[in-house]
Sequence to fold (759 residues):
Amino acid sequence: MKTLRLQLRFLIPLVLTLVLAALIALPLMDRLTLRWFARDLNNRDALVANTLADAITEAETDGKAWRVQSMFERAVQDERLVAIALCSSDDRLLRRTDGYPRTLGCARAREISSHPDPRLQVEGGAVHVGVHALDAQVADSDSLVLLHDLSFIDHRSADTRRYLVGFIVLLGLAMALITVVVAQISWRGWVSGMQGILRGEGLIRPLLNPPPELQPFASEVRARLRDLEDEYRRSLDLMSGWTPERLRSLLQTQLRGDQVIVVSNREPYLHERLNDGRVIVRRPASGLVTAVEPVMRACSGTWIAHGSGSADRDFVDDRDCISVPPGAHDYTLRRVWLTPQEEEGYYNGFANEGLWPLCHVAHVRPVFRESDWQFYKEVNRRFADAVVAEARSEDPVVLVQDYHFALLPEMIRERLPRATILTFWHIPWPNPESFGICPWRREILQGMLGSTILGFHTRYHCKNFIETVDRYLEARIEHEHSTISFRDKETLVESYPISIAWPEDNVRALSVEECRRRVFERLELAPGTCLALGVDRFDYTKGILERLHAVERMLEKRPEWVGRFVFVQVAAPTRSALEEYRAFQQRIHSVADRINQHYGGPGYQPVRLLAEHHEHDAITELFRASHICVVTSLHDGMNLVSKEFVAARDDEQGVLVLSRFAGAARELSEALIVNPYHVEETADALHRAATMPPAEQRERMASLRMTVRENNVFRWAGRMLADAGRFRLRERIAARVQRHTDEHDQKHQSQPDETTLHA
Fold:
């Protein structure tokens, strides 16, 4: 029925078009036919007149008029010639045949013959009237009047109409048949093509190429299917929510409890020895640790990281392992030791002087040294050895974290071919032209393509990576499906926006008012002060200098805020061994001192720099005490500070000022989005945030909190692990099928040998 309706959509307009064409063509064909025959009769008349002219003149000259009449009678025996008459120059009728109408005079005949349609209706039917002079060179020559029967023209016209109608009918039937067949084939092709698109939208499964007619919008369909899949996932998250328990359940059901190994440079807990000899356990200031540590608590796996604490060696067993967190023992931390030279070349050199500025559009020139590259390869190999040593099976799930280990996936793949390797790149990925600066670009790309799944924060970064591979490697890329096939291995390139663990209610024991009182008392702030807060590492990509300029500009434009507005910048020192970072820290201190000297006074400093490490509880207290949180990253993969601020504000107050160049801006659209390079725009946003009514703050913060709560870190990890689970299931089924096939082939190969032995 559906195909019949589709065919009728083609057939009905086709039939109407053919009917209209017939109605227009038939009258035109009649007129053309009449003109053709009229021209033919005129030529025939001229031929007859020329033939008779000499004989008539000779007979009239010899006085043998009866011969003229006899010639006329013989001429009209032609079936088409009805009658002939001879007219004098003065229009007198001299002779005529019996069939010539008595009422048709010579003058009337001349008048009719000069008409475009020389037709005369007589008793026997319509005739064609033609008048031709016997001697065209003589002015007063006699003329012959010839009347031709037109009935044969009517017969011919009727035949032509019948033939034309028959031709149109046959043409219509042929076109209808072709249309039905083509429509049926096209419909089946479209259906199968669309089914192929739908089947090809799975995560790692190969695509079925759509037919050519579907190519123009196949990518749009797949993009819409991705959006629908995301909406479906969000709806599931709304119904059940992602929690540690749900993540553990997913690990048991889809991954069958497979071992999870996380690899990162930074360890989640480090042991520091103080000057007085005491040892403290500290969590480093790291977005990676903030995101991944709750996942490891839920999965109870093994975390392999660089042991960088001054007292780390004193608290590990003979396998360099320790159970963490302290007092909970949720998972195992395996520490890898590096020499100062290795740390300098691998971490400070290639990773942070090379890859970090290369991937961030922060206008800092990357530095690549051959010695740093050698250390980078060696350290990646050392961590690969640790992964193999910790793996309890041939197919563990390995989560490789960040740009420090671009070569690690391929190294693990070589030694554990069945491992499921999930690499997450926490920083942005540049465009192909920028990445081309790296001398070892091919080696890095090949190392990353050892991953089963390669994750980025945004689809824009995924697109950049795929285009980079397309530029520098010979690989098969399915752009619609975001998969790359390289050396017989397939890698899914997907976006997984990272997040934080939603805090439990009992964590926020102190109210916002109490937190604000304690912070104001500790920082000696006057009551009624508007407190703006920035929390970052001392890094040039975080836009600390730009936000200081924005604070300075706001105080300049709106002097009423002098004495009433304080900006507190928490900046944990990082990478101080690098000259670029030391110079940046000195510049920040210099700008802060200048602003304080210009706008400060007794008991008031508009900018407060807290350049020291703060524990998580202290940061949470600052989040709850502040009125504004300022995140002005110049280029950031995600930036979790913005999400931590939102999660801390259970009072649904406070305003988030967020850089458009942070990945979080794509999710947290209710924040005040700014361009950190535009000082005026950021200064105006600070003023707007400071004067925003409580009702608007509540509306914005409630929406932000819902977004962060739904898209928490367990959802981030759950999506990656679920994708890994589907891939592992497919691999196991394929391996089982291959094993049965091999056994079947071996059985058939052995049967002739057994028969031969019997014989």
DSSP finds 21 helices and 23 strands in the chain. The longest strand covers residues 125-133. Residues 199-209, 753-759 have pLDDT under 50 and may be disordered. Residues 2-62 form the longest helix (61 residues).
